[in-house]
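Worked Example 4.2. Read the sequence first, then its structure tokens.
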Amino acid sequence: MHTIKAFIITLLSITIISCGNSGTQKTNLSIATDAKNNVITIGETVKLSVHNPKGLEISSINYSFNGETIEDSFKLDDQKLGIQTITATVKFGESSEDITTKITILSNVSPKVYGYKIVNEYPHDITSYTQGLEFHNGELYESTGQYGESKLRKVDYKTGEVLQNIALANQYFAEGLTIINDHIYQLTWQENIGFVYDVNTFEKTSSFAYGKSKEGWGICNDGKNIYKSDGTDQIWLLNPETLVEDSKLQVYTNKGKIVGLNELEYINGKIYANRYQKNGVAIINPKNGAIEGVIDFSPLIKLVKQHDGLDVLNGIAYNPDTNTIFVTGKRWDKLFEVEVFEK
């Protein structure tokens, strides 16, 4: 049991966030909650009040949570996790004022620990700095990084044979990829641009700029929505038509936020995310951002060729034809097919 707890702590590197009130200078009105440090867990009820140090004659107070009307006693149910905003519209005399406070919402479940069984091992290009991995129509697509080495390719995963390959210009450091509606979406790291290709010809058809996210790390889709990570605790939801960042998830456990989210894969209703430098994968609820499970893949790096360029686990792809998961790493000479199970 101690080993499992130690693993979760190491893999997730948890950080608690505390948030305070922000009032105005004129009235000194502020929102108070009954939650310690304004940190609240799903399932709990938070009680709200307005701190009124000047004794203003308040005629009404209306609260809202991320724009939706709430009561002053507010039960957290299916809200998104992370730092969220509560607003109070306070009326006094002939005046009205909006004041806000931030609360941090935690998950109400501890992440489950999953193990894995290796089903098969396949060859993988040891020179590939793997950033993105995804199956489409039974074939494996891969995005590789590093300036001057970045590529987009289609691979016969059983033999490692490269079926299609294009190199990116030297100024781009490629990151994750995903495929939807016969288009490949490939991210770049710090260049603030993503590329769109025809999945059959690899012809570049368009590009898109990032919005509020500063970098490109991982990307996946559920057949409708596109999810994008940026190396923080945030996963952005992109409009599949405009590729605008419409909204975001903040990824949290029952203890705090989780950063370093990298390569993403959507598997059976959950987002699987490599955590950079952790050799593990987090299983995320795409509705609220809760980490519901973790997989420790750290033993795999010992099964590949040891060399100076060897780097961390990265690259996770689900093959619906086999109902198995494929994982590899940066400059690994093997691609592992695994079955995952709850310990």
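Now turn to a second chain, presented in exactly the same format:
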Amino acid sequence: MGSVRARAAAGATVVVALALIAAGTAVLLVLRGNLQDQAGLQAEVAAREVAAQIATGTAYPKLELPDGEDHPVVVTDEDGRVLAAGEDVRAVDGRPVKGAAAGGGGAGFGRPGDEDDDDGDDDRGGLRPGEVDKDVHHRDGTADVDGTVAAYRFAVVEAEDGRGEKAVVRAGAALAPERAAVGSVRTAMLIGLPLLLVVVAGVTWLVTRRALRPVEGIRSEMAAITASTDLSRRVPVPSSRDEIGRLARTTNETLAALETSVERQRRFVADASHELRSPIASLRTQLEVGVAHPELLDVPGAVADTVRLQRLAADLLLLARLDAGERPAAARVDLAALVREELPQRAGDRIPVGTGELAGVEVAGSRGQLGRVLGNLLDNAQRHAAGQVRVSVLRAGEWAVLRVEDDGPGVPAADRERIFERFVRLDDARARDDGGAGLGLAIARDVAVRHGGTLAVRDRAVFELRLPAAG
């Protein structure tokens, strides 16, 4: 079954069928038991009426016995000899009783007590003349009434007549009505069960089809998106606020994230191609001029273009590793020590770098990547500073904070998030830039995020890196 609807309909049908079979069996058993108990009660009433007559001294030939067809009655003595029998009663359990009312002669019956006792007690022997035993014994058997053999529920009651002789009264109640009722109910169940299962299967099929219709819409739209590669399309969202509605919304969110990622990748490739084209073209031009006219070769310019190309390639490789999900190392890094190692390398820079508070606070991460963040922040600050750059390290609760600030014009509030996008350079920065590709701040933020921290512009010219303090 490849269809969810078919599996759901089949499963529901099987479950309902099992439940109905179990319930129907229980109903039939309870109904049969109740009707059998009712027949036993009728037989007991008939037996006690006859036993009461015997106890009051009525002679056996003069006993008023019930109609033989409804309640066949046989009265025997302790030895099983027939003393009286109902009209038209010819045999009970295959034992003939004809001629019993005339004084015996019928085939012998079993001794009293061979039947099932309702309470399990055997109180025979305690009767006195004129008493009827309070216990009753029940059993199922057959009786031949006027040539018709049928099943009966028999009740057996003992009584003692005025002469002190015991008599055993066997009275039956027909089980045909009970069996007819049980058979009718069983037939109705056998007819109704398949019809009900067909209804259950049909309703389940229709309900499942209606419930899964939005899923089919989502599937078809996803197939269309895959075929067209148009990630701007979205799947239809049903109005219901159920699991299918949440699935549609999650699918649209995934498509939006995928569209953003693909667009970002496309823009990244385009910008990277543009940024790589400039230094490569400049370097090639200088080398071609040098081949034709060695005296005109600008060696410092060629070296500068090569360095710029090397840095750009390194930035692109780092971004590629970050996008691939490279996890930073778990080493302990002292931010203050990192600053002290970086500053001597900038001793000859145009803008000197001063220090503020350098608190000894450690973070967990990659020393090389965090050093790259510090270097990029200092490069950005020196590029825009008027005459001073200052770096400081401090601890704020559970955070280690590294701040780099300069005395330049700062970043306008509207651009404080845009500058962290890749290949983004503000107009004045582009005019003053000495060759940066607009990747430094983007790399710095990506590294900060990978280390569980943040990087933001807190003031016009203050960049603040926050990382979870180790330990």
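Notes for the reader: Residues 100-107, 119-124, 428-433 have pLDDT under 50 and may be disordered. The first strand starts at residue 73 and ends at 76.
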